[in-house]
Amino acid sequence: MNLQTVNKKLTEFENTLKTKRDDVSKTKRKIDEALKSLEVLRESQAVVQAASKVTQEHLEIQLSGAVSALLHGVMDDPYNFKVEFVPKRNSMECNLLFERSDGKEIRTLDPLDGCGHGAADLASIGLKTSFAMLKENCRRTIIIDEPFRALSKDRHPLAAKVIKEISKELGIQFIIVTHGVDLSYEADKIFTVEKIGNKSIVKES
After folding, report:
1. CA torsion angle for 102, 105, 106, 107 (degrees, to 10)?
2. Dihedral Cα 129, 134, 135, 141, nearest 10 deg
């Protein structure tokens, strides 16, 4: 192999080596950029997780507070109501729990099995109230049909008073459809519907 061939091979090797170095340099830059992006994503994820936690805590307080207030305002031996967010399979589940005065939680698939339908009726209205408060730019009107069906009749006047207080304090309008007169005592307006023949006649009392 003559000197010219050796020089040619050496030049080719140097060019190949330079190309490989350039490739390595580009790859290193891409790795550095990817690591920076990963770090930004981790920081962003931490911010999202922190914001999510604050939001969940706010919801827990808002939902459990409204329902517990309703339970305590109406029942003799009231339950406390708890909302618990639990991460499961890359998602978040919400558990609704009733807690006895001794701190014992009722953890069943159906809370009605443990606490009774009266407490569940109250919890349902408390949750509807909370959701109405969470909505923005929306008329706060809640329509409820035959509420407190499972609540003992002697508690209906007290339940009506509590609903009235909630309406005043939170600025929520409740439209209640009921056959029971006890719930109408605290109403601002009462409309009665009477069927005469094939017609339903609506009158304001």
Report:
1. -160
2. 20
Per residue in 137-154, pLDDT tens?
A: 767 888 988 888 888 888
Q: Which residues contact 175 (CB under 8 A, 6 or more apart)?
A: 141, 142, 143, 144
User: Residue 122: which of 166, 84, 85, 169 has the closest Cα?
Assistant: 166
Residue 200 and residue 73: Cα distance in Å, rounded?
36
Reported as half-sphere exposure (CB side, CA atoms, 13 A), residue 201 has a value of 6
* pLDDT score of 175: 92
Q: Quick count: other Cβ atoms within 10 Å of Cβ 125?
A: 22
Domains and CATH numbers, the chain: 45-204 (3.40.50.300)
Task: Judge contact between 162 and 185, C-beta under 8 A.
Answer: no
